Fold each of these.
Amino acid sequence: MTPMKFLLFVLPLTNAQYGSNDTSMTTTASTTTTGSASSSTHKVDVGKNGFTFDPETLTVAAGEKVEFHFYPQNHSMTQASFDNPCHPISASSFSSGFMPTTKASETVFTLTINDTTPLWFYCGQIGHCQAGMVGVINPPSNGQDTLDSFKKAANTAVGSTIPASVQGGILEKSGAETLSSNSSSATVSASATTSEPASGTTSSTVSPTSAANSVGIAFDMCILVILASFAALCMM
């Protein structure tokens, strides 16, 4: 075998020793959305437009909230039964208590609705319930239990009473409620096998495989130089 043929035979073997120099890196990224979905909140203005709840009828899903915002002069909202308006349905009826104010009150009474059972309510101030200041959450879809019928019964009710304490809901400043709602917003977190460098900087990472291939290439070059020198000597 001539030196040149020997050189051509050995060259492929040196490259095959380390395999292909092309490497690929796979980065897996995952994004997860966490946090509880914020419940829908419904707003009711109490006494803003006279002896009224605005709106006086609401459809609210289980788990959602209803906020009662109070206006002058001194109103309340208390749960009643359809058959006995202007008086608490029981000792545990939800009730905001009286809310005396000369302007839009910063204090809000918030109810969390647990189911879709009709909830009838009224203002317990003297004469207000009889004047039609009543409302209903999740009214019946059919039958004779309508808001108009409830108003007619309230018009002839004798007196008004409310529980002695605030119960069934939460009284708090509207600013605190807003802060609480904002702090409970959903968060998005992301994780990946690689990280982005800080802005304005460049990062470079050499994998062990790449380092080994670089050493192999350098070794191949040394062999090629030796073989070339050997071939040149033989041809002289």
Amino acid sequence: MKKLAVVAIGGNAMNRPGEKPTAENMFKNIRTTASYLADMIEMDYDIIITHGNGPQVGNLLLQQDIAKDTIPPFPMDVLGAMTQGYLGYMISQELKNILEERKIKRDVATVVTQIVVDKNDPGFQNPTKPVGPFYSEEDAKKMQEEKGWIFKEDAGRGWRRVVPSPIPLDAIEKNTIKDLIENDVIVIAGGGGGIPVIIDENGELKGVEAVIDKDRASALLAKELNADEFIILTAVEKVYLNFNKPEQKALDKITVNEAEKFIEEGHFAKGSMLPKIEACVSFVKDTGKPALITDMEKLKDALEGKTGTKILP
């Protein structure tokens, strides 16, 4: 029996830090990412691929601000849908090409996914989700004054615009995704955390101005789709305590209780590793199944138990 895994890749797997966010660069980076995902498929996994979109949504927000006097800006839920569409296209194309090269006959499909959130979620009053490029403190404060945007310092890497990030509650298209998986289709879903929607007083879906954390949305999908494993691919091989300090310590395997203790002690940065650990803890607690965090270049070794950080019940 194949194992079903939800694999979450970051927005920086498409745009590397300091690199121009051109379509050409994105295709090149995604092809590299897709090769690691193809390795996983060759290891007899079925996979649902989720991805970040913070840099891409941030770029669209900037483009819209520049052109706002010519073309009316779209709301953030529509921008989320736009990034799901074009990133899904890029991932599906590059993965399909690599699978064909390896003589693997599998269909790949992107499902533009809506994620239900609570209209009264406190996240709407306290924006925390970083989007777009990094700025100096001086530039960030200038833009905050001029445009009314909110900026926060992001894990020692610079200042970024932040937007509301409500907790994901349900995936509208989960049954469609299940049907595709059962028909041997590799699915890309929940891109950028999904399109945030509320159910209004008339019982209708309505998009809202927010960006859902893609790791939390990916954990939700993993639970709803009964995945055997939840995997987050990031820029580090393992999770560390006291990251980038002389007493830095790598974590190989940790239990949910240990992870919660480390969270309480403040070991993980809010804009970086914290949501990843929290998402893994949520999945493991609710399912009793393992979660894994590692660098995509080390994915094969991590799946063989040679590296990565595994979170266990």
